TrEMBL record:
Residues 1-22 are annotated as: Disordered. This is ROK family transcriptional regulator. It holds the Pfam family ROK. InterPro entries: ROK, ROK_cs. Belongs to the ROK (NagC/XylR) family. It comes from the Bacteria.
Amino acid sequence: MNLSTLSASLHAPGTTKASPSDVRRSNRALIFSLLFPSGSMSRAELGRRTGLSRVAVSDVVGDMLAEGLIRESGLEHTPGKGKRGTLLAVDTERLRIVSVDLSQAHLVQGAVTNLLGAEVRRAERTLDYANHVTIETIGELIEGLIEDDTVIGIGVAAPGVVSDGVVKRSTVLDWRDVDIKTPLERRFGIPVSVDNDATCDMLTERFYGQGGPNLMFVRVQRGIGAGVLINDVPVTGERHAGGEIGHIALDPDGPACPCGKRGCLETLISESALRRRMEGLDAAGRCTVLRRAGAYLAQALAMPVGLLDMADVCVYGPPDIVNDDFIDAAQEYMDRATGSSFHAPTTVRRCQCGGDITLRGESIAVVRDHLERL
């Protein structure tokens, strides 16, 4: 995945001419994207891949080496006796990121990671029965994680609609217009990124999982969220509510939802809703519940899959919920709903990125935002 496509810093066609700082920002995002997460290239190869001049590459690379974003990692292997170029790679030793995950029930999780999202330190704060999260809770967790001045950014992943550091609406957290960014930046003096949890999960699947540049990602846990990549660009929507499929009403006569409607997808297939429905059932009964849930998900996704011609749907959730029964039923419904002579089958599959998917994805978001700053 190209990190430069995740940057919102470039001028769109037809706008005023890009400033030198815009060009410099674009160049370093482009170079870093060719090395992230596991690339290794010489300056000459970076020049060939980017089309930048030798002087431009040398200038940007020099700054990134000094900053600690990249490192020299040895010499390239070339045939013959000519001079071998010095290879460059992402530096995993010098800079750190603090990521916080607000998506878990009864728990706020945090970790210090390197630039690739690998955990260095970890901390948790348990919540009361009501799952009440406060900015102070988040701040205390971060306070215990930061030990030095190598942290380049703090990232917070939250369920719900997120815009410019504010959680506009989260039925899971029972939040409306909660500003996370401002108080945390004031407290720690470090840039803060706030992102939707499902979008973070999708970034992890794209960089470290099996996702391609066009991907529909669904998170099935306390709530139901989704992320969409089109040509490696996340689609967030005009009001930053893209992916909020949990509040699509599939059954107007169904269970009441905190959003005010009835029969929303979140009330039908969230982890808590399904566990309540399966309580006391035998294996056959649980299978029936999960197959119906998989069909509900495919019903909600069939229209956008057809509209966008998506070939890959990845579903993340607890393995006893998002299991073979769930996925098989979703695949069967999707095939019936979208299959045609001009639409190749869409694959519905289970995400296998593991339990730290959100923290790791938030670290990617922090790196993306850091690249936009000079």
